[in-house]
UniProtKB/TrEMBL annotation, chain A:
It comes from the Bacteria. It comes from Solidesulfovibrio carbinolicus. This is ABC transporter ATP-binding protein. One of its GO terms (cellular component) is plasma membrane. It is a multi-pass membrane protein. It holds the Pfam family FtsX. InterPro entries: ABC-4/HrtB_transporter, ABC3_permease_C, MacB_PCD. It is found in: Cell membrane. Residues 20-227 form the MacB-like periplasmic core domain.
UniProtKB/TrEMBL annotation, chain B:
Residues 261-379 form the ABC3 transporter permease C-terminal domain. It comes from Solidesulfovibrio carbinolicus. Residues 19-227 form the MacB-like periplasmic core domain. One of its GO terms (molecular function) is transmembrane transporter activity. This is Multidrug ABC transporter permease. The lineage of its organism: Bacteria, Pseudomonadati, Thermodesulfobacteriota, Desulfovibrionia, Desulfovibrionales.
């Protein structure tokens, strides 16, 4: 009990210095947590991928279409279970600042491929039976206060004209990393309209989502599909959904990685400064430890006291960082909503924060503790004079 | 009567190591701050300089980028005949119908695929883009599948050197030239004959029309005429404005990310400055007592210590901006997620960034030093002298 009091009093002997140390640790760990959350958000699409889904697209680039007629041939490839054609629609709601992803898909098959999009049976039925229906994610509905039955008109950027559609269903994500900001509508609606407006552009799709039964055969099936269309006017490139998403991420990751690398250096420096401050206060009190030694406290007890002191400060900082991070991440998520549909602090990030906080506490105590244990009492007293 | 500034300065010089460490921490924070702003600015300037002030660009109504746009042959040709368009050196209108598509190529640095703009051009395209100069090889012959690549493409992608060839649309496209378009977006593009490229991509429509006006003032009348024609379904932009718009999304992203990160970091740096300044005050209690005893006011002492921490911030700021300025020589190549295509651009240090970064560092110095300075100014004279 007495020891506990001693530790507490010593830790806050220089009240200001202690507070600054705590805040310093908290700042570094908060910045670290935020950065990791940004990186997680960047990779969210990759994490949400399923090993049982392949994506077939035009080999030239994602912006080149494929003939819809490929669907039948892909379905005959051994191991292919479901094929759903779809495409990036790229429609704008009122103003381009309101960006959200929107796709035209063959809804029947598409939703079989995506069990993580949860829709109530009656809404699903309503969506499937209305040619001009749309289904939207929960977050998207919240963002624009859309309700079932509302009519939303998208302005086409790739497919010209105005595209009115009625919201018939709202889906929820089964997992925290499921994107709930997407709008899906019927590929049939898109294609029939294009037949009237620009017949040469009808019968084309952006990609085929493919469900396979056996994930271990993904590479083989991909090869078989691409072989079908080799040397045709529109060659295909088939890869797992994960690889497809990774490709997206890799394209624009360079900037993020550069910022992250520099930031980690800054964070490490802040932590080192905080650790040094803690070690400094232990160094100043060498004489006091000599007194305690004289009183019969052994080296382990003294080392334990020192450790407890620096852990107290480091963990207080860590706790502060953990408390600040979630609300901060929320603010960030709002500010960057159009870039990061999924932005939440992962448990791993919290664990890492705790681990680093602990490490700083231990490291800060290590050197002074060793010195206190090793110092001869007489030498320590001599320092005081 | 104020304490001379040299007093504050000499105090910093005396404790060289502490000063260096504290200023170093600030310098790093300023460095991150400046570097992200430089990236955003580099992106903007690259895109702004891609457009030429005298040029207009016509896209399909509602399309945000060249790649999404499409203009049927008949409509595209109708626009090139308008009177506002200047005649070229060959006497024909200075207008080009171009096709713009993306093609996936492998990046040398990562081995991953990125999308590169491939532009099908007409003879007038080169005259309209004064920034484009051949640096090796020759321009592609019209009517052949020859292509030329921008400097950034030749440097950054595998198989895109002169003498090699790309394969798409069931044929090989030999690279016969490399062109340099300075720090514009064109340096990240591939150019070939539009009539050759369109069938290869299964296209029968152009993407855009680019035209040079007789004089910039004719923009309004050209815009009105083209946008009012219901058969065309087109929208008209000044080329400079159109390209600048392509940097909006990425710029906002970089700025938000960079500024919020550095704000968090700056807390750490300010704490560092605070610890340093408190230690500095604690070590000079007797000195402060002497200053007060010989007649300097509390305000003067406060100012002297505040000056010290502000100088600390300024040193950090100058070092940080200096470090970041060194990045100006680096080219950065990444996908612009608004256009979905690869773009090479430089870290660009604009005067406003320097001013903002230094202001930021001074702010850190002032905030970090305020409490310690306040403490110094409020010491009792007698007690302080007794410490000595």
């Amino acid at each position: 009990m007495l020891l506990l009091r001693l530790i507490l009093l010593n830790a806050f002997r220089h009240r200001l210095r202690a507070v600054l140390t705590i805040v310093g640790v908290a700042v570094a760990l908060t910045a670290f947590g935020l950065l990791r959350t940004v990186l997680d958000a960047w990779h969210a699409g990759v994490e949400a991928s399923s090993a049982n889904r392949l994506v077939t697209r035009n080999a030239v680039s994602l912006t080149q279409p494929l003939p819809f007629a490929y669907k039948g041939r892909i379905r005959q490839v051994t191991g292919v279970d479901i094929v759903a054609a779809g495409g990036w629609f790229g429609g704008v709601y009122l103003d381009e600042k309101n960006f959200f992803p929107n796709f035209a898909v063959e809804a029947d098959d598409f939703f079989k491929l995506y069990p993580e999009l949860i829709v109530s049976p009656e809404e699903q039925k309503a969506f499937l039976s209305d040619r001009k229906a749309a289904i939207i994610g929960r977050k998207l509905a919240e963002r624009f206060h859309w309700r079932i039955g509302d009519t939303v008109t998208l302005r086409g950027t790739i497919y010209p004209g105005q595209w009115p559609m009625t919201i018939r269903a709202i889906y929820k994500g089964a997992r925290p990393d499921t994107d709930e900001t997407v709008l899906y509508f019927h590929y049939g609606y898109l294609d029939e309209t294009m037949k009237k407006r620009a017949p040469t552009r009808a019968g084309q799709v952006g990609f085929f989502m493919i469900g396979i039964r056996d994930a271990t055969r993904a590479a083989e099936i991909s090869k078989d599909i691409d072989a079908l269309f080799h040397n045709s006017q529109a060659e295909t490139l088939t890869e797992t959904e994960r690889a497809f998403q990774l490709g997206f991420v890799a394209m624009s990751e360079a900037i993020l990685l550069a910022i992250t690398a520099v930031s980690y250096v800054v964070i490490a420096i802040i932590l080192a400064v905080a650790a040094n401050t803690m070690a400094m206060s232990a160094r100043e009190r060498l004489g006091e430890f000599a007194v305690l030694k004289t009183l019969g406290f052994g080296a382990p007890a003294l080392a334990g006291m020192l450790l407890a002191e620096s852990l107290l400060l480091a963990l207080a900082g860590t706790a502060l960082a953990m408390a600040v991070l979630p609300p901060l991440a929320k603010g960030f998520a709002v500010g960057l909503a159009q870039y990061f549909p999924i932005f939440f602090v992962s448990p791993t990030t919290i664990m890492l924060q705790a681990a680093f906080g602990l490490a700083v506490g231990v490291l800060a105590a290590a050197v002074p503790a060793w010195r206190v244990a090793a110092v001869r009492i007489a030498d320590a007293f001599r320092r005081i004079g | 009567m104020a304490v001379p500034l040299s007093y504050s300065w000499r105090n910093l010089v005396t404790r060289r190591l502490t000063t260096t460490l504290t200023a170093g921490g600030m310098a790093l924070v300023v460095f991150v701050f400046t570097a992200t702003l430089m990236l955003a600015e580099g992106l903007r300037q690259t895109l702004v300089s891609t457009g030429s002030p005298g040029n207009v660009i016509v896209l399909r109504k509602g399309s945000e980028t060249e790649v999404q746009s499409g203009l049927e042959r008949v409509q595209a040709s109708a626009m090139t005949a308008r009177a506002e368009i200047a005649p070229g050196s060959d006497g024909r209108p200075l207008a080009a119908r171009e096709m713009v598509v993306l093609i996936g190529l492998t990046k040398k640095s990562t081995g991953k695929t990125s999308n590169v703009v491939i532009r099908g051009i007409e003879p007038a395209s080169l005259a309209l883009r004064g920034q484009v100069r051949l640096i090796s090889g020759r321009a592609p012959q019209p009517g052949t599948p020859e292509i030329m690549v921008g400097k950034a493409v030749a440097k950054g992608f595998t198989g895109a050197e002169i003498g090699q060839s790309l394969r798409f649309g069931k044929r090989d496209w030999p690279i016969v030239g490399v062109f340099d378009a300075g720090s514009t977006g064109f340096s990240s593009e591939i150019w070939g004959d539009a009539d050759q490229l369109m069938p290869a991509f299964g296209r029968n429509a152009y993407s855009i029309v680019v035209a040079g006006l007789r004089e910039p003032g004719l923009f309004e009348s050209f815009k009105e005429a083209v946008e009012a024609d219901p058969r065309l379904q087109a929208e008209v932009w000044r080329e400079t404005r159109y390209y600048e718009k392509q940097s909006d999304m990425m710029r906002k992203f970089l700025t938000v990310l960079g500024v919020s990160l550095t704000l968090i970091f700056s807390l750490g740096a300010m704490i560092g400055a605070m610890i340093t300044m408190y230690a500095s005050v604690a070590g000079r209690v007797a000195e402060i007592g002497t200053l007060r005893a010989i007649g300097f006011t509390r305000g003067a002492v406060l100012a002297a210590f505040l000056a010290e921490s502000t100088l600390l911030g300024l040193i950090g700021g100058l070092a940080g901006v200096g470090l970041a300025a060194g990045l100006s020589f680096l080219t950065f190549s990444t996908t612009n997620f608004q256009t979905f295509s690869e773009l090479a651009f430089r870290f660009t240090l604009a005067p406003w960034i320097v001013v903002l970064s230094l202001a930021f560092s001074l702010f850190m110095g002032v905030v970090g030093g305020f409490l310690p300075a306040l403490r110094a100014s409020r010491l009792g004279i007698v007690e302080a002298l007794r410490e000595g």
